[in-house]
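Quick illustration for those who missed Monday's session on complexes.
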Amino acid sequence: MTTPALAPETLEGWYVLHQTFRLDRAALRPLLPVDFDAIADDFVHTMDALAGGDGANGWSALVPLVGSRADVMVMHFRPTLDALGDAQARLAQARLSDYLTPVEFFLSVTEAGLYYVTAQLAKAAAARKGRVGDEEYQAELKKRVDAELATEHVRKRLYPPLPGGEMPYVCVYPMNKKRETGQNWYALPIEERSELMKWHGLTGRKYAGRVLQIISGSIGLDLWEWAVTLFAADPLEFKKIVSEMRFDEASAKYGEFGNFYVGRIAPPDAWVRGLRPAAR
Ligand code: 76R
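Prediction with 76R bound:
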């Protein structure tokens, strides 16, 4: 007998905000270089304050975009929603923000989905004629969650450090899992979702060391269900991994995608100085 369409247990870490903006170049152009420089200094100062030092309490990074509907992305990771709100407000205060038009913002929280653990515990509960969520289930779940949280692998997914210079390329997009008649991820039994996620994870692991992924959940926080943030040394890896995953049943049958944003992490100073209008 299969167990019902249970929600997987999940672990959450830092809150995440991805902000993409279009730059109002026409409004920047008439500025005197001296006025532009003041705006640029203020922006660099703001981004330095947001960067987060050693990253223990989150971080923010700037990603100039290539070939997309926006010019630049700023992403923020913070331990609380309030701290994330402060980061958003701090950026909005920078004078350069008057020249940045929001294109898309995604609010989410880093997530590790415990499909396998949930499927196993549900099966064990059924075998002992207990219930999902009963005392024994909770006790076992706590043990399993503690074990997961003790691993470097899970901690890195929940509190992801900003990858160093060796993985400067970034690809961000939102995802949903389908909810259509006859093709509804949320109506599948937990065993089936666990099996599909096992294959998904195996495909992903082939890219270990080449692609770093952060999955953040946005159900209840935003229109989309997840934000996918990928880092790579070589941007071609984005095409490779996303293509391969598309043949994986979890994405092939159930994945729905939003806009893709691709770029390279840059020092805010280098980026903003490059916008300086030519002297007239
Ligand atoms: O148990 C396991 O091994 C699976 C661990 C795992 C989960 C739970 C995992 C592994 N992912 C999980 C969840 Mn993922 N991931 C994506 C994308 O473009 C596409 O088709 C998909 C975009 C990529 C590239 C990727 C990479 N993953 C999720 C979820 C939440 C789904 C849910 O809960 O229903 C989404 C939306 C998602 C999407 N994933 C991995 C990777 C990689 C590289 C791995 C293996 C590396 C690792 O173990 O850290």
